[in-house]
Amino acid sequence: MAVTFHDLKSASGLKKLDEFLLPRSYITGYQASKDDIAVHAELSGPPSSDYVNVSRWYNHIEALLRLSGVSGEGQGVQVTGSATVFEEVPASPPIADTKASAAVDDDDDDVDLFGEETEEEKKAAEERAAAVKASGKKKESGKSSVLLDVKPWDDETDMKKLEEAVRSVKMDGLLWGASKLVPVGYGIKKLQIMMTIVDDLVSVDNLIEDHLTSEPANEHIQSCDIVAFNKI
């Protein structure tokens, strides 16, 4: 079933969205999709920092739209104009919601996860929200945009496989962005690629030494250089 939100320009609508995003990174599923773009478009601008989870999600979607775009199809989302509570049934709910979902009667067509919260779950959610809010500013300022030069061994190196080797590196806090091939000389080209990192989670030096210039990626990659490094 499609997720439904009501009046996201009102304080009550933003509060419900903030609660909804507390255990989630995206509106539906486990990757950014058209559902995120649809909700993002309903917001007139960056939300107040009082809405910690909405701000986290909004800044992440903004970064994706600037760097690499969003291609996921999503599962469907609706946004209406009335300032009333919303009900939703996540197609792929987080593990933390499983117990609440199991407690709902089989006769119910819709699941109101917020209405089924126990006191313990509510207290845990409040503690988590307080912790996220306390560190929210630090996390938002702890991101960097990095431009890398990735050089092949010679003009016979398959640059498509080289780029695949680069993008195959997956780490928490690492997001690969746009790329292009730049001529170096003598028929050799290098790969220039953008990435966004969370400073506390990703060390660029370790990324290069332990992943990009070590096996198996070094079959295609001779060396990597940092061209630009900017705080976001």
Would you mind describing this structure in some detail?
By secondary structure, the protein is α+β, with helices and mostly antiparallel strands. The chain is 35% helix and 22% strand. It contains seven helices and six strands, in the order βαααβααβαββαβ. It has helices at residues 11-21, 34-42, 52-67, 98-102, 119-141, 159-167, 204-212, and strands at 3-6, 77-80, 143-152, 174-185, 188-198, 221-231. The strands form two sheets. A four-stranded antiparallel beta sheet has the order 4-5-3-6. A two-stranded parallel sheet has the order 1-2. Helix 1 (11-21) packs across helix 3 and helix 3 crosses helix 5.
Brief summary:
This protein is an alpha+beta fold. Helices cover 35% and strands 22% of the residues.
Features:
232 residues; alpha+beta; 4-stranded antiparallel beta sheet; two-stranded parallel ribbon; 22% strand; elongated
> What is the distance, rounded to the nearest whole angstrom, between the alpha carbons of the first and last residues?
36 Å
Strand order of the largest sheet: 4-5-3-6
How much helicity do the residues have?
25-40%
How large a portion of the residues is in β-strands, by DSSP E? 15-25%
What is the overall number of helices? 7
User: Care to count the β-strands?
Assistant: 6
Describe the global form.
Answer: elongated
